[in-house]
Amino acid sequence: MPEGQPLNIQTIEQDIKKGKRKPEVSFFFSAHGNLEDYTGIEQELSDADVFVVESHGWNEEDLQYLQEISNGIKEPKHITENRPPKDVLEYEEELLYKTNKKVEIIDVPEGHELDKKDDGTGEYINIVGRFISNGDLSEALEALKESTQQNASYLDEKDKYLEGRLRDLLEQLQKEHEKMPKVLVQMGSSHINFSHSFRRSKEGKISQNTIKYDFLDELVRHYRFNKEPSNELITRALAEEIILQLFGEELSHVPYLKRNTFFRQLLTKLDDSDLTEIGRQTESEYFQKVIMNNEDDNLELNRSILNNAWKNITGIDLLSEINNLISEQDN
After folding, report:
1. What gap in Å lies between CA 7 and CA 5, rounded to an integer?
2. Taking the model in full, what pTM does it have?
3. Does residue 33 contact residue 255 with C-beta atoms inside 8 Å?
4. C-alpha pair distances (Å), 226 with each of 47, 132, 198, 220, 223
5. Rg of the chain on CA atoms, in Å
6. Is residue 12 very low, low, confident or very high in pLDDT (cuts 50, 70, 90)?
7. Neighbouring C-beta atoms of residue 180, cutoff 10 Å
8. What is the distance, to the nearest Å, from the Cα of residue 122 to the centroid of all Cα atoms in its chain?
9. Where are the domains of the chain?
10. Residue 99 — φ and ψ, nearest 5°?
């Protein structure tokens, strides 16, 4: 088309109705914890014309900032400070910098009802705290089931929103461009469901699918697909979340896939009786130290209490195993 000639909107709309202008969409699903979780996105972004980023609770200033990064108007902070990116968000900015890619956000914006809605995950830390202090496994398992069911319902609702927003964006792009641009959609692995309809209609493909869900994500997915989870899965999801809540800072430096392999090896043989005994011992030591001796109820104390109980019941020094995992990552 000659430069400056307007698009023939009528012809384009007719082509859309006839299915002649299908968008080309690639989905990149991953965790967000570590730069290695984004392995493979570099080439996908290089091939794309439009980059759709995940940004829950975003506003127009966020979108403008990313677009200015892409256009080279602004420089990512870590580049200005001459240091490597500290997380995946900074790495995303580095990948975008001076690419002149069009940036779009289809995620839930700031102030939207889904931005304000409780997704159930905020209760996890309370479940862990109660288990350490009172050792009641049955109460903890029921509370976790309730919270993960709430999270499953929330994710279903959010995925419907994401699908609708992406369809609106693709329709807009169809009308604005003579040749359909290539679109890359980056989302967390928990949102893989919303890509199904695009893949069935051959509008989209998954460009990265090296996903090994952790026990908690697996539990949530059971509820999303209306499957009844086993007691073993719920127990292991609880144990995993207890460890993540107490050792989250250390484990945040470990790539998602490597971390999940660690949990599979650590927890596969764990059963209700083991966690029941761990709960009894954490409750006993918590009572002695916090209630009787008036020690501060803080993270370090709770980590020590859990590690002592875990070692007594399973023979595994939890803290040593985590430190070994981190050392392997550093090397």
Report:
1. 7
2. 0.89
3. yes
4. 37, 30, 22, 10, 5
5. 23
6. very low
7. 17
8. 14
9. 1-119+157-211, 212-331
10. -90, -20
